Amino acid sequence: MGPDEEHTRPEGVDDLTVEALGDISEALEAIEIARGHLYTFHRLSGTADLTLGKGVEKLREAGHKALADKFERELVGRNVLEGRWTFQIMEEYDDGYYATFKRLEQEGRDALVGGRRHLYEAEMKEDRRTHGRRGHEARPDDN
Question: Closest Cα partner for 78 from 112, 98, 48, 110?
C-alpha cells in the first residue's frame, strides 16, 4: 500500500509546484520555531521582571532604600520595547506576520493541491522507504 489520498499529489500537479509548496511549508516550520522562541522570550522576560521585583524588595528590607527605589523606578515593570511589554509584541506578531504567513500558506495549498499538506515529504518518504519491510510502512494501517 502507498500513501493515503491526503498525501498523494493531485493529477496534473507538476514537480516544481510540489517543490515550491514544500519550500513554503519548510519556511512556515521555521516561523513556528521562531514563534516558539518569541513565546520563550515573553515568558523569560516576565519571570525576570517578577524575580527582579523580589530582589528589589529584599534590597529595601536590607536597608538599601535608595538603590531599591532606583531599580523600581527605572526597571521594574519597564517596557521591553518602546511602549510595549512582551504580551503586546506577541499579539502584534501573532495578528500580523504570523497570521498572514499561515493564511497565505493555506491559500497556496488550497489553490494548487486541494489543501493537501506535506506532499513533498510524502513523496520523499515513498522514495526512501523499503517497500514491504516492517518499520517502513507507508501509513499506520499498512501492516
Answer: 48
Rounded to two decimals, the pTM is 0.85
Q: What is the pLDDT of residues 44-103, one digit of tens each?
A: 999 999 999 999 999 999 999 999 999 999 999 999 999 999 999 999 999 999 999 999
Residues 77, 54: Cα–Cα separation, whole Å = 12
User: What residues pair up with 81 in beta bridges, in sequence order?
Assistant: 84
Cell of 13: 500537479
Burial degree of 64 (CB within 10 A; 0-12, 13-18, 19+) = middle
- Alpha-carbon distance 140 to 104, whole Å? 30
